[in-house]
Specification:
By secondary structure, this protein is mainly beta. Among the domains are: 54 residues, no CATH class; 42 residues; 95 residues, no CATH class; 87 residues, Thrombin, subunit H (Beta Barrel), CATH 2.40.10. It has a four-stranded antiparallel β-sheet, with no helix packed on it. A four-stranded antiparallel β-sheet has the order 5-6-7-8, with no helix packed on it. Strands 9-10-11-12 form a four-stranded antiparallel β-sheet. The longest helix has 31 residues. The radius of gyration is 45 Å and the shape is elongated. Keywords: Membrane, Transmembrane, Transmembrane helix.
Length: 453
């Protein structure tokens, strides 16, 4: 059948520009649509291939329609994206839109509260009237909330098991550190605090408040009316004394409980010998471990029981460093060829330290890194390692102070050392180097623990 001649137009864009690929098969030169002709009815079939890189002529009606369709699709997509993000922002306050400029602010996070602290030399006492164990510490605080940064600084703080922080006192002044806070219990039973070498406080053990004790103590001596520039405690084995620097530049040693004031020379005389004892001096017993001797390095460490004359609240020089040595009978330069005696106390030392007599409480026993933890004349607690292994843990042990017999022994926690102990509720309570309070009953059983924080 003969073919009817017609103008062949692209069924996609209407263009008559075309390229014949094979008989009756064409490709539109304008939109690259491929199409072919059926015989008889000249039906045009096409395979449309859209070229994304093709720039369509804008004066072509079909091209304009295509652009409008594409624009409509893009517009619908943008509108849907915005609607989805708006809905997400409404129902999810914490979400943030990432494909549009719609953001969710949500509520501001709560400000962190509390403080972090480094602590120094915790001490212990029993609160008057409540029988609660109280730990007093110097702590350097840094508050976490920006609104509380003005509270940063050094504090004298009181903690008790079960309640935590129960009282506090901020130490005023610039350049204060926790090492500038010192605690000392005097023979009157009161706990005294020196803050920044400038103020002497006494702790009210019932209210846990600090009272300025220096004003009362210093007003008793005319020599101190010029004012006191700095205050320090004497060494603990020298008794209940203070080292003062007055505003006129004098260094003095003051024992406020007996109102005795000494210069350098008089102070040395006052703490040595029997002749300088104050009225009311009494006999007292202490226990001291010997230390490694340079003269006899192979000797075992011993627990020595010493009876001596105690000068009460006055100057003293209580033995705290004891070792065996060679006594050549006088002063001078000697060699091993000179005669000597092996002594623990020379005649001079016995006189100067007011020693009446002494004995080895546990003869033959072997000790490693021992220390007396508590000694009140009736109860004696020691801490030691069971052997020479540096990784061995410490043991806490109660001895009979008359016979040296072991009454109980417990293991201390590995890596934790008890630094101080006091009597507490028919037992003892101690504070460790990592600021933990440990309570023991009278048989040495650990009954409770509390972490200072």
């Amino acid at each position: 059948m003969a073919k009817e001649i017609k103008v062949i137009k692209c069924p996609q864009c209407g263009s008559t520009a075309k390229t014949e690929l094979k008989p009756d098969f064409y490709r539109c030169n304008n939109c690259h649509t491929e199409y072919f002709l059926d015989n008889d009815d000249v039906t045009i079939n096409y395979n449309h291939n859209f070229n994304h890189n093709l720039n369509l002529p804008f004066n072509n009606d079909s091209s304009k329609k295509v652009i409008k369709v594409i624009a409509l699709i893009i517009g619908v997509f943008i509108v849907l994206t915005i609607l989805i993000n708006v809905i997400s922002a409404i129902f999810s306050p914490k979400s943030v839109a990432t494909t549009s400029s719609v953001y969710s602010t949500g509520p501001a996070p709560a400000e962190e509260t509390g403080f972090s602290a480094s602590r120094y030399s915790p001490d212990l006492f029993i609160q008057a009237g409540s029988d609660a164990a109280i730990a007093i510490v110097a702590e350097d605080r840094r508050y976490k909330a920006k609104s509380e940064v003005q509270k940063d600084g050094v504090y004298i703080a009181f903690y008790t098991p079960g309640k935590g922080l129960v009282a506090e006192h901020k130490v005023e002044g610039t350049h204060v550190s926790t090492s500038d806070i010192k605690f000392r219990t005097f023979s009157d039973g009161n706990l005294y605090v020196i803050a920044n070498k400038s103020t002497l406080y006494v702790v009210d053990k019932s209210t846990l408040k600090l009272t300025d004790a220096g004003k009362k103590f210093f007003s008793a001596k005319e020599e101190l009316q010029v004012g006191v520039a700095t205050i320090e405690f004497v060494y603990e084995d020298n008794g209940d004394g203070l080292i003062l620097l007055t505003n006129d530049g004098k260094k003095l040693y003051y024992y406020p409980l007996v109102q005795k004031l000494y210069n350098e020379n008089k102070y040395y005389e006052a703490r040595k010998g029997f002749s300088s004892l104050l009225p009311g001096a009494k006999e007292k017993v202490i226990h001291v471990f010997t230390r490694k001797s340079s003269d006899y390095p192979e000797d075992k460490l011993q627990l020595i029981k010493i009876r001596y004359k105690d000068n009460g609240a006055g100057p003293k020089d209580v033995v705290d460093n004891l070792s065996w040595g060679k006594d050549y009978g006088g002063s001078g330069i000697f060699t091993d060829r000179d005669p000597y005696k092996k002594v623990l106390f020379s005649d001079y030392t016995r006189q100067a330290d007011r020693i009446l007599d002494w004995k080895d409480l546990t003869p033959g026993r072997l000790y490693f890194e021992p220390e007396v933890m508590f000694d009140d004349g009736s109860a004696l607690l020691i801490s030691f390692k069971p052997d020479a292994n540096p990784n061995s843990g410490y043991k806490l042990q109660q001895l009979n102070s008359q016979t040296g017999a072991v009454e109980w022994t417990v293991d201390e926690s590995k890596g934790s050392e008890i630094k101080r102990m006091i009597r507490y509720k028919n037992g003892f309570i101690g504070v460790t180097n990592d600021e933990e309070l440990l309570q023991f009953d009278a048989k040495g059983k650990l009954t409770s623990t509390y972490k200072i924080e």
